[in-house]
Amino acid sequence: MNNKMYWPQGLPRTLDVPKTSLFSNLEVSASRYPDKPAVVFYDSVLSYAELLRQAETLAGYLQTECNVQPGDRVVLYSQNCPQFMIAYYGILRAQGVVVPVNPMNLAGELEFCISDSGARTVLAAQELCHNALPALESGSLDRVIVHTYSDYLSSEKAAQLPGSLGEPRNLPDHLNVVGWAHALSSGSPPSRYTGTHKDICLIGYTSGTTGNPKGCVHTHNTIMAAVAGTSAWRGNGPASTVLAIAPMFHALGMQASMNTPIFCGSTAVVMQRWDRQMALELIERYRVTTWSGTPSMFVDFFSNPAIADHDISSLHRLMGGGAAMPEAISRKLNEEFGLTYNEAYGLTETAAFILGNPVERGKRQCLGIATFNVDARVVDPATLEDLPQGETGEILLHGPQVMLEYWRNPEATAAAFIHRDGKRYFRTGDLGYMDEEGYFFMVDRLKRMINASGFKVWPAEVESILYGHPDIHEACVIAIGDDKRGEAAKAMIVLKPEASAALTEGDVIRWCRENMATYKVPTQVEFLEALPKSGTGKILWRKLQEQERAKH
Fold first, then answer.
1. Domain that holds residue 472
2. Structurally, how many domains does the chain consist of?
3. pLDDT in tens, 95-123
4. C-beta separation of 117 from 217 below 8 A
5. Least confident range of 11-15, 203-207, 280-284, 491-495
6. How many other CB atoms sit within 10 Å of the CB of residue 35?
7. Residue 370 placed within a domain
8. Which DSSP string do the residues of 318-331 spell out, in sequence order?
9. Using CB atoms within 10 A of its CB, is residue 170 exposed (0-12), middle (13-18) or buried (19+)?
10. 523 lies in some domain
11. Least confident of 357-361, 371-375, 471-475, 517-521
12. Rounded to 5 degrees, what are φ and ψ at 332?
């Protein structure tokens, strides 16, 4: 390694990853800190001992009543809440495979994840469970276990909270829909755990460039490598109190808001959804020290004029990724609050943490350096040959946290990896360069992707849904700038000859809201007479993208 490359003082170059299951992390923390708050959900507290007890009880129900066998996939479909964490670890204790699904996904998107993963059981939040009913009716599913957020809140607090947080228990009347309370009252203990750290424990779906999401297959070992790595890198420990607002279905929130705190024996202060005023009150009340989130959250939070009336001096570490933090906000954090935002880089394919800025020597708008046991390179995307420092190319990654494969998708797996020097490297599809100290910087994307507040929006996926509209003949989706989200989708549409002349941009957007997750919905629609095409009939999306950028 170039001796000019920086490495954090006091940290080893390599890290031994525990050869245990993720569930053992909960067992260890519960044995060390049985009475300590593991989860704080607004005004309710769940101790480590109780978190462990409920996870084991749920595991027993999954095994005895849902016939979950080792390796069986179980879908987890919910916003952040204590039940998400109990369900996640309950599935692991049953030796099942967690399949977290974005709670913004609608019925069709959920059904794809169910059928592709082969899951027969879904654990769903009450306001989302109706999206799973079609799969029950079609026979794709055997059981839906429904949880209600307000069950883990005092009645007084629930009444004060907005939306689905305060809704009382109201389950669909269906033979194969059971309530959370029923599942936890079964009393059946789980069978003896016989798994190893090499077992598959997670299939995380990430949208695919060809329209269908792809399942990233992770073992206990690959997830644990990222958990142990981020903990050592950032100095997390049992004294940390974490604001758990990043969505737990997503790699960032799953690792930073749940798996790492449980590994360390920390306390997670859980928020169901983003609310800057509530975040401010919880940070002050519970003396939150650590917070991982997207830049858009921090931009919103630190623009709240009410900050001056609250004590947030406990905040010590701000971390995240998904998009670059604006320079003006980084400067404001440092100058007004004495805080540094620690940027990092990761993907669902890498269990989040793989490149990171050293805590004491980070660079702004930077992905960071290769962390423990990681080999990162920049190569020519065409020849796959290494490029010298400073030259832009595709970022390749090798490390213990990299997924095994894409679930039941050998073609995509083969395209995503290359073998070199006895190692297997993941092709990120991100273009960047490395400076003389080993820090990586993002330049562009090799893949056609829109980054909406850290969520990946693949134009081909949105286009495939748009083609389901009865009046749309052709569609092309491109990226546009968005003040709040960084980027958003714009749909360029050619209508069918018989389409109603009264169809408006708003009509199309409303239809999209009914048929796809909110973050995928185009914020603009433009009607065209025809889309530009190549000699072979391919839509020239890049030409449309360049024309749009030229306008602005």
1. 450-551
2. 1
3. 999 999 999 999 999 999 999 999 999 99
4. no
5. 203-207
6. 9
7. no
8. EEE-SSPPPHHHHH
9. exposed
10. yes
11. 471-475
12. -65, -45
